[in-house]
Write a structure and sequence with these properties.
This protein is an all-alpha fold. It contains nine helices and two strands.
């Protein structure tokens, strides 16, 4: 890109999404897609299914912490709106000239919260799941067989819900792109939004990369520490 184009991009756009948030977003896509593929590919891929699950666990822990200490548009205080504001936004949803929001709009904020909750539930149920033949979650021996079976059933149901949410999310992205003429994917790649399409807040943010690395290490440490406390399988698990 020529120097003049770079200067124009810097002038006409503002960094809204920090790098840690963008990495979280795309790594979560990879972890969920990988979890789905490895669950369908056969028993020989089950170790990778668990690895993708552990990655999702670390990402959810990261996002919870990042929602407290990250940049202003990704903090919970920055995208969780009151019911009155959510309903007010819904009334303008079909209008092309509705006022843009710099960070997450009220519906987008709800989706972020829903994803954190439902992926967290998916990971948690997977830790106790079992197929009673070849595959057991690392903590399945801590619960009764009946409860392990119930959690396994919910593990499958929740993933179906995640697929539905993903489909709705893709449809929403297309709706904003085609109808409201707001590009949502490119800003989640570059971190920048055109200044003309921002709300009242047109001041850019820093990426807080160092803090993001620290939070990522903390999240990874929590997952690793939890897995080291998993009970060793007993001989009964093999017969």
């Amino acid at each position: 890109m020529a120097g003049g184009d770079q200067q124009k991009l810097a002038t006409d756009s503002v960094r809204v999404w920090d790098l840690p948030t963008r990495l979280f977003h795309w790594l979560l896509v990879i972890s969920l897609a990988g979890s789905w593929w490895t669950s369908e590919a056969g028993i020989e891929w089950i170790d990778w299914h668990f690895r993708f699950g552990y990655l999702a666990a670390g990402l959810i822990i990261f996002r919870i912490i990042w929602g407290l200490v990250g940049t202003r548009h990704v903090r919970f205080s920055g995208f969780l709106y009151s019911p009155a504001k959510i309903f007010a936004y819904l009334r303008t949803l079909g209008r092309r000239d509705s006022k843009p929001v710099t960070g997450h709009n009220p519906l987008g904020g709800l989706v972020v919260l829903l994803i954190i909750i439902i992926v967290g539930a998916q990971v948690a149920t997977g830790l106790f799941a079992t197929d009673d033949i070849f595959t057991d979650g690392p903590f399945h021996t801590l619960v009764s067989d009946d409860l392990a079976g119930t959690l396994t059933s919910w593990h499958h149901r929740i993933f179906t819900a995640i697929q539905v949410i993903a489909a709705v999310h893709i449809a929403a992205v297309l709706f904003y792109w085609i109808w409201k003429r707001q590009q949502l994917i490119w800003p989640m790649i570059t971190g920048r939004k055109p200044r003309a399409l921002l709300g009242d807040d047109k001041i850019g943010i820093s990426s807080k990369i160092v803090l993001g690395i620290v939070v990522a290490l903390v999240a990874a440490g929590i997952v690793y520490g939890a897995l080291t406390m998993a009970p060793e399988p007993s001989i009964d698990d093999f017969y």
